[in-house]
C-alpha cells in the first residue's frame, strides 16, 4: 500500500511538469503561427535528456523513473487510440465519391511508394554505420523506409481542424489519402514488428489479416448497430452515461485487440471512429466528452514519453552522424512532398494546389514518433537513429504550417481558387 502511495505521489509532480510545459510551449507555438501540437512536441523534447537532462540530469532522473515512464507509456497509447477515434469520427463519408476515392488512391500511392523506396535506399547505404549488429539489412532498411513513408495523420488532422478545413473537399482529400497512406504503412510496420520479434513473415501476414477482418466487421456489421444508437441519441438530444460507457468500452476493446494482434492501437481507434454514426447531436456529444480530456491530458503525455526517449546530444556529440541526419531529412522531404505534388500535378491540378497537398502530406509528427518508439522498444534501431528520425520529424512538421499558409492563405479571396481543389479543365 505504501509503495502504491509513493508511486502516486511521484507521478503527480511528473504529470504537472508535463502539462505545464505542454501548455506554455503549445501557446508559444500558436503565438508564432505554428499549430499547438508543434509546441507540444517541443515540450516533450525539453523535459527529456536533450534539454532537462543536460541542465538538471539528477532532477530529470528522479522525476521520471522507470515506473513513471511505464505509466506514461500506458496513458499515451490510450490517448493516441482515443484521438484517432475522434479523427475517424469527423471524416465526412458523404464526400467519398468515386472520383474522390480515385484521387485519394493516386495521392496516397505516390505518397507512400516514393518515400518508401528512398528510405530503403538510405537504410541500405547507412546500414553498416547506424544499425544494430543483430538486425539484418532488410529489416533496418524497411524500418527507415516506413519512417519516411508515414504521414502524421493526427498532426494533419490538427492542422485542418485549426484552419476549419476538416469537412472541406480539400480536408477530406488530404485526410482520406493520409489514412490510406498510414493504413498501408502500418501494415508494413506490423510485418516489421513480427520480424523483429523473430516470429517470421507469417506472423506479420496474420496481424494484417486480423486487422483487415476487424475493419470489415466494424464498418459492415458494427456500423449498423451504431446507426441505431445514433438515431436514439439524436431523438433524446444527448448522449447518456450508459451510451457513453458503451462507446468507451467498444473503443478500449478495439485499441486492445488491434494492439494484441500486432497492427497497433491507433488503427483500432480510427476504425471505430469511422464506424460512428454521423448524426449531428451524436458527434457533438462525442467531441464534448472526449476531446478536452484527450487533447489537454493524454496527447501531451505521449509527447512527453517520446521526448524522454529522445537524446539529440547523441547526434551533436558525434559529428559523423550529421551527414546521415541531413540525408534522411532531404530524402524525407523529397520523397513525400515530391511524390505527392507530382502525382497531383499529373491528374490536372495546378502547381499551387499540388504543392499545398504535398507540403501538408509531408507533416509527420505523431505517427513517426509512434514508429520510432516501436523501433526502440523492439531494438530495431539505436538511440542515435531514434534521435535522427525525431529530428527529421520535428523539422518536416515545423516547416509545414508556414509554407501551407503561403500556398493556402486564410483570406477567402486569396484561396478561392484552391478551396475545393478541383482540377483545372484542359481549356484553362
UniProtKB/TrEMBL annotation:
Keywords: Ion transport, Membrane, Transmembrane, Transmembrane helix, Transport. Its main location: membrane. It is a multi-pass membrane protein. The keyword Nucleotidyltransferase does not apply. Residues 22-400 form the Cation/H+ exchanger transmembrane domain. The chain crosses the membrane at residues 6-25, 37-59, 71-92, 104-125, 137-160, 172-195, 201-222, 243-270, 290-308, 320-344, 356-378, 385-408. It is found in: Membrane. It comes from the Bacteria. Pfam families: Na_H_Exchanger (PF00999). This is Kef-type K+ transport system, membrane component KefB. It comes from Priestia endophytica DSM 13796.
